[in-house]
Amino acid sequence: MYLRAMRVKKPTSVAIIGSGNVGRGLASSLSANGYTVTFGVRDLENFSAKSWLSEHPSISVARVEDAVDQSDVVITAFKPEGLKEMIERMGDLENKVLIDAMNSIMNKRTPFETTTHALEELTHCKNVVKCFNTTGANNLANPMFGRQGMDMFYAGNDSYAKDVAQQLAKAIGFSECYDLGGSESYVLLEQLAMVWIRISRGEIGRDFGFKLLRR
């Protein structure tokens, strides 16, 4: 009954697991657009966003398991090598929407093809979607270029999880959200992330985003 109730309501609370640059970018934009945001961290006394949080009083912090328990949506944004430990800390994810914003393509330290494949298998969560992994933290904090928002891409096997990811992306300023398919497209999304990373290391820098143009 709880799962059915969760699927018909609009999620309002988000746990972000990982307090690095990507987590901070998402936290700031989601919080600014009305979502209740909680960082889930391993050590409440020592985590990377501790001083940053003093300038963002609307964002809270809790142990990983507590942040997950009190939130509708869980976004993973930590280093892939800590994946198994974090999954153990996250606890029961059966009735959560799990959004993977990570990439393992640069750091193959797990036996899985992508971080999202790993999350699907190790958590047994059915509401998994890969999103927010194809651009930099600066664009997650602010996807607007003048009056135009950049585009976002996602993939997953669950239609509700996709709807939630699109809802969050549009709420924080992304213009269009493109569905690239099911789990077969997780690798494609990580490769697209590599395109952004490669370009960002050149003369253009990080202040650019992907936008599809149509006639």
Account of the 3D structure:
This protein is 37% helix and 18% strand. It is of the alpha/beta class and 215 residues long. The chain has one domain: NAD(P)-binding Rossmann-like Domain (Rossmann fold, 3-Layer(aba) Sandwich), CATH 3.40.50.720. The strands form 2 sheets. Strands 3-2-1-4-5-6-9-10 form an 8-stranded mixed β-sheet, with helices on both faces. Strands 7-8 form a two-stranded antiparallel ribbon. The radius of gyration is 16 Å and the shape is globular. The protein starts with a helix and ends in a 15-residue tail after the last helix. The N terminus is likely disordered.
List keywords for this structure.
Rossmann fold, alpha/beta, 10 strands, globular, 37% helix, 215 residues, single chain, disordered N terminus, two-stranded antiparallel ribbon
Reported for the largest beta sheet, the result is: 8 strands, mixed
Write the CATH fold name.
Rossmann fold
Instruction: Say which CATH homologous superfamily is assigned.
Output: NAD(P)-binding Rossmann-like Domain
Number of strands: 10
Helix and strand composition category: alpha/beta
How far apart are the first and last residues' alpha carbons, in Å? 45 Å
Domain Pyrroline-5-carboxylate reductase catalytic N-terminal: 14-103
Organism: Phaeocystidibacter marisrubri
Protein name: NADPH-dependent F420 reductase
GO molecular function: cupric reductase (NADH) activity; ferric-chelate reductase (NADPH) activity
